Amino acid sequence: MTSETNVLRKIYLDDYSPILGEAEVDELRALAHPLHGHTVQMVNSTALGGGVAEILTRLVPILQELGLSVRWDIITGGNEFFAITKAFHNALHGGPYPLPPESFDAFLATNEQNLTRLRMDCEFTVIHDPQPVALIKGRENNSGHWVWRCHIDLSRPNLTVWEFLKPWVSKYDGAIFSSPEFTKSLSIPEYLFFPCIDPLSEKNRELEPEEMRAVLERYRINPRRNILTQISRFDRLKDPVGVVRAYRIVKRYFDCQLVLAGGKADDDPEGETVLQEVIEAAQNDPDIHILNLPPWSPTEINALQQASTLVIQKSLREGFGLTVAEALWKKKPVVASAVGGIPLQVIHKHTGLLAHSVEGAAYQIRFLLSNPALAAKLGQQGHEHVREHFLITSNARRYLTLFLLFLRAGK
Ligand code: UDP
Prior knowledge:
With about 400 residues, this protein is an alpha/beta fold. The protein has helices spanning about 5-10, 15-20, 20-30, 50-65, 80-90, 100-115, 160-170, 210-220, 240-250, 270-280, 300-305, 320-330, 340-345, 360-370, 370-390, 390-410, and strands at about 40-45, 70-75, 125-130, 145-150, 175, 190, 225-230, 255-260, 290, 310-315, 335, 355. The strands form 2 sheets. Strands 2-1-3-4-5-6 form a 6-stranded parallel sheet, covered by helices on one side. A 6-stranded parallel sheet has the order 9-8-7-10-11-12, sandwiched between helices. Uridine-5'-diphosphate binds near residues 51, 231, 232, 262 and 297.
């Protein structure tokens, strides 16, 4: 099968039965029954790149198959808008906010422009992350049910940005967070939804050995030597340079190759600069493979994860880190930073190992490379942990339950 036919392969709800059991799939259908024909709108800022797009790509068709009428809209904006929203993102993760107060007006102006373009007339509207948060202004006569889905770790936000956003968030009927620790004190109800992966998607399905081999050959990666991999957008908060430093320490003790694979998201203007920083840090080491992947590369990412001896996620801040769930699902031993939503997935010494520094990450990588039996056990336990908590079907169930709750409660 070529990767193109795989991409086009349609996935049906019944295909999940062997993974989840038939009863769970039937339960989803039963839950969705009262919602047949009800309209839902999902809005975010990019169709490709990053975890939100990854989730919506699979969540939307599943909800549609369950009988809901779902539309997915993407807001548009110029370079200035995405520079502002990237600065929001960094500041909400605790960094400084370097832009002047007028940037807030420019942000609101772009949201207004999108309101003239988008129809906001569904019964349930889910706005993802801060970029489109002010679209709530377009809600007419307090109609419909509006919820803000925050995928960011808001536990220590820069107050300049959070105090600007909070009044907008407070206009919603509810806010969804990825971890209890990310919640804020708000006047509206708050819900906990774990992010999720689709086990049947092109990115996570089990590949044939020759499919994997083809990808490794294309990037000149040797499958007979240790492969350490981090998959991430080129973003400083993912600390790719820190990964290179950890690799250099490990390399003193073990033969290994490092794969840093990522791409750039449409809504992230810093990608190119960070990519250059990583290339510089690698200093032409032939065993460091820096792969700037095209935005749609699920087969390549899947193959790189499946071929890895060990997967790293050395983020400095992280909303959730879908790449961790993807690696665990593939039964890979994972060494990751204890930040954001990662500890929900990597339970130290049970489903992977946590680290707090470059040296700590290098230590844990060395430990796992010298204990392959333990590494395999952590990977197996990680797979079960993902099956239980972080699959797309659980996420769909959460949305259905929330919509039913709204429906029953009326306005
Ligand atoms: N991803 C991708 N191409 C890339 C880098 C990442 O498709 O070049 C995917 C990755 O496999 C994962 C998602 O994008 O599914 C990233 O989600 P995560 O929560 O790890 O990080 P985010 O980018 O949202 O901060």
